[in-house]
Write a structure and sequence with these properties.
The complex is a heterodimer. Chain A is built from seven helices and no strands. By secondary structure, chain A is mainly alpha-helical. In chain A, helix 3 runs antiparallel to helix 4 and helix 3 packs antiparallel against helix 7. Chain B is mainly α. In chain B, helix 1 packs antiparallel against helix 2. The longest helix of chain B is centred in the first third of the chain and has 32 residues. The chains are: A mainly alpha, B mainly alpha. Chains A and B meet through helix 1, helix 3 and helix 7 of A and helix 1, helix 2 and helix 3 of B.
Chain lengths: 196, 100
């Protein structure tokens, strides 16, 4: 059975189906992270004392990671733009860079976690660390998910460019929307956890 | 793809680079302001305003929300309403608990 509206827009929505699908998924993601953010607010206002993130977390390392993730968002959108300009070689380059930057983010995050564990700081150490590990852990899982999808499109999935370039370009746009959302979540996590 | 579409995408690419630069600068500004040690309510307000500006840049340009179809805006407005309702519900529950 052929999947409908993978390239052309549906007349009633004006969108190809996957685009509406990813936005509905992202709406559910807003509620998921929103629930955790509101938990953070409740835990913080309900606590008698709350540490300043910058005193117990590594701000320079997290700043570097923020710049890395923003960089990966730009390379992601450039990979889509490259396909729109019929430049498959540039797509491979920018998507490869996106994957490398995503991996860099995870390696740095693993280093941060390792340092915390080395100092005996675990989720059960305090309410702050419980919400810190929950939020950054869930975000990290999203990065891993995005890397798996991007890795597939960079590698075996890219064969579709030869048979159905329109659908492949749309797939990259959809993967990009997810990746930018992951970046967007980090844009809020960084100041909330590390700076305030 | 016709020449006009390629030209349009090239214009977009220039915008992406500008937005990227703005995001980098705003990240550095956020960190710099944190070292000023503003008093608490203002530190939160300033940090969240900068984060909101960065998020809107990503959403508007990288996620193309600046020129999207109506149905997407509809989905996002509904999401916003549910998000605010959830926050209000949690905070009201907390306030109620404090009242008791």
């Amino acid at each position: 059975m052929e999947i409908p509206y993978t390239v052309t827009a549906r007349p009633d929505t004006g969108l190809y189906n996957a685009k509406l699908g990813i936005w509905l998924f992202l709406a559910s993601e807003v509620m998921l992270f929103g629930a955790l953010f509101s938990s953070y607010v409740l835990l913080r206002v309900g606590a008698s004392t709350w540490p300043t993130g910058s005193e117990i977390l590594d701000v320079p390392v997290a700043t570097f990671n923020t710049l890395v993730l923003i960089g990966s968002s730009v390379t992601m959108v450039m990979s889509w733009a490259s396909l729109k300009m019929n430049n498959f070689g540039k797509f491979k380059l920018y998507m490869g860079l996106t994957i490398l930057l995503g991996l860099t983010f995870l390696v740095v995050k693993a280093y941060e976690y390792g340092t915390k564990f080395h100092h005996g700081l675990y989720p059960e150490t305090s309410t702050f660390f419980a919400i810190y590990f929950t939020l950054t852990g869930l975000h990290g899982l999203h990065v891993i998910g995005g890397l798996i999808v991007n890795g597939y499109f960079w590698g075996p999935g890219s064969k579709m460019w030869k048979t159905n370039p329109g659908q492949f370009t749309n797939r990259i746009e959809v993967a990009g929307l997810y990746w930018h959302f992951v970046d967007l979540v980090w844009i809020f996590l960084f100041p909330v956890l590390y700076l305030l | 793809m016709d020449d006009q579409s390629v030209l349009d995408i090239k214009k977009h690419v220039r915008v992406y680079i500008t937005v990227f630069s703005a995001l980098m600068v705003l990240t550095v500004v956020t960190v710099a302001i944190s070292y000023v040690h503003l008093i608490m309510p203002w530190a939160i307000v300033v940090a969240l305003i900068i984060a909101a500006i960065k998020a809107s840049l990503v959403a508007s340009y990288f996620m193309h929300l600046i020129s999207e179809k109506k149905i997407i805006y509809g989905v996002l407005i509904l999401t916003g309403i549910f998000f605010i309702a959830m926050m209000v519900l949690f905070l009201t529950a907390y306030g109620d608990q404090q009242g008791n």
